[in-house]
Design a protein that fits this description.
Length: about 325
């Protein structure tokens, strides 16, 4: 008997529809000011915190490998952007009372299918964990059905169709590395300079936890980071295009996650200096960029943290 056949603890209640409706309204307002070419491989940019949290909790309940939930967030982010673009163009090509009424029905349907689309993204993500992963586990349609059958919200056929719908909307492109890949690579690069074998696994697990925190606070972190770099809170269309290369840069994000983890672990000052220098070398990114993203993360998740004076920059 598989673990998926056993009784599982139900997920806590989430106001998913309320979160998505607000999000869709924001997307609708911002549509003409956002990047038109949404069928790219850009990572997590628009999924709000409640939905990221729901994906993380669902992944844990399904006992999926660590990396799956991060890839699932990225896939769901791209799926919803692509779907919104396609439907918005089709339904609201002309702002007439009839098209606005039709859009309300489309919006309601998107909300009703939200949970199913999340499961589809988790399902697809589970199929792209490296085959040599020790904890690899493919989430099948049958497993999803067994997991949700008590609610009887979706049939097995619905689940199969949803997976293909998501796959097509993603243009059959899954993308490459997740944030876990970047952190693993950077920690491995730091191994001989920073950590012995006793510290290696400990610091890696701490960094994984920090990845979760950064994903859950993504929008707030990058809103503040943009402000720190530009002194602006609102982003124009041109700002969004130029800043997306920073927001989706997994190496800089991974480096900032490692530095933040080290700072919260009270790493000695001399070792922190070496760490920052090595992260800059490995990512070919300026030390100040990594330091300041780390400072923003710390400000968001740990406001009481006080950085040392050498990391306080005046502009």
């Amino acid at each position: 008997m598989s673990s998926m056949d056993e009784k599982v603890t139900p997920l806590p209640p989430f106001n998913l529809e309320g979160s998505l409706v607000q999000w869709l309204k924001k997307l609708q307002v911002d549509y003409n000011h956002t990047e038109r070419n949404s069928k790219n491989l850009a990572t997590h940019q628009v999924v709000p915190t409640p939905l990221v949290e729901f994906i993380f909790i669902t992944s844990k309940a399904l006992e999926l490998p660590l990396e799956v939930k991060f890839l699932a967030v990225d896939l769901f982010d791209r799926f919803i952007r692509n779907q919104f673009k396609d439907l918005y163009s089709e339904v609201l090509g002309s702002l007439t009372p009839r098209s606005l009424k039709r859009w309300e029905k489309v919006e309601a349907k998107i909300c009703s299918q939200l949970e199913l689309r999340i499961f589809s993204c988790l399902q697809i993500a589970s199929k792209f964990i490296p085959e040599n992963s020790t904890d690899s586990k493919i989430l099948s349609s049958r497993m999803i059905y067994e997991f949700i059958k008590e609610d009887a919200a979706f049939s097995l056929q619905d689940i199969n169709k949803s997976e293909m719908r998501v796959f097509r909307t993603l243009n059959f492109q899954i993308g490459g590395a997740t944030i876990i890949t970047f952190v693993d690579a950077l920690i491995l690069g730091l191994y001989k300079h920073m950590y012995g074998s006793a510290e290696y696994n400990h610091i890696l697990q701490k960094c994984y936890q920090m990845c979760e925190v950064v994903y859950l606070n993504h929008q707030e972190i990058y809103t503040h980071f943009f402000h720190k770099l530009t002194a602006l809170w609102d982003r124009s269309h041109a700002d969004r295009l130029s800043f997306s290369s920073v927001e989706c840069n997994g190496l800089i994000k991974g480096a900032a996650i490692i530095l933040t983890t080290a700072r919260l672990s009270q790493i000695p000052e001399d070792k922190e200096k070496i760490l920052t220098n090595e992260l800059s070398r490995l990512t070919t990114s300026p030390e100040q960029c990594i330091q300041e993203l780390s400072a923003v993360i710390l400000h968001i998740i740990c406001p009481q943290y006080t950085p040392s004076k050498k990391y306080i920059h005046t502009h």
